[in-house]
What we know:
Helix content is 32%, strand content 23%. It is of the alpha/beta class. Helix 1 (35-45) packs parallel to helix 2 (62-71) and helix 8 (205-214) packs across helix 12. The model has no long low-confidence stretch (mean pLDDT 95).
Amino acid sequence: MDILCVDIGGGTQDICYYTGGDSFENSVKMVLPTPSKHICAAIGAIKGDLFIGGGVIGGGGLSAILKEKTAAGLNVYMARSASASVRDDEEYVRSLGVTVTEDVINPNVILDEFDYGIIAPVIEGVLGKCAPDTVAAAAQDHGYVPGQSDRVTRFDFLKNFLKNGLRQAFYTGETDIPENFTRWRSLARSIKTKCPKSSLHISDTAVIAALGAASVTDRRPVVTVDAGNCHTFAALIGENDKVYAFFEHHTHALTPAMAESLTAKLSSCTVDGNEIFENRGHGAHIFEKTDASGCPVLVTGPNREKLFSPSENVVFSHPKGDTMMAGPIGLLIQAGASL
């Protein structure tokens, strides 16, 4: 079975095309800039008015560049389907000087973060075909509830999403995804439009990074930490990748001392979600109290060296020899691939 895995993060999109006929190490793998980067670059290069269509992508620098355009006196028109890329609150989008319309005819920018037109030709060029039986993709979506902090919305969602463990935390169709998670629904629609014969698998970047990081050892329990460009997610994981407890914070709000303290509290299930939320993070949750103090801490993500130093129990996780493939490996584990 051919599986195309795409892990869309804040800085990069990490890609693997796994055929199952060879080892994972011999699969086609790519690390490319995250789609919002080349989309924002394209917007910046346009000198006239903007007509933006498409769907929902990760915000990245989109809000800032649209503010620059409207401040320069240019008109910015966004289709309603695309406006949630800035924020799900349409009134906020309008406050930036953007005109939100039901649709935009002949857009000069299309927001779409499934870069199949970039990915497929590379795979076809080296393998002779790109015909995935499954497209497995991950991105982070906060969700939206009017009048509620998106940090609260996302954390409430994660508590339900993770209750059956990391391996079961995914969706297999657009209709499975909650309606208020517009980024995931938009990603699912794009995948089904471009790969109509492929089955669909959608998950969260933090979840799959945890699975990939934990795959380097059979030992349980372990703590996994994904020190991402925007968010740091950590989980205390037991047998069958059950989640005992987890926390999520904004990476820029953490220091090495804070990261060490929080992971120690996580391993003993004494981590305080209110403390994290008051420090502008998302929170912490304990499903089942257990004391795994001193267990291995497996760290991945682009900011791992900023927050952690290797020690007796802190290990930088390189699943299958490549820390950038933690996400795709997590997707493959969820999809039931034999690695």
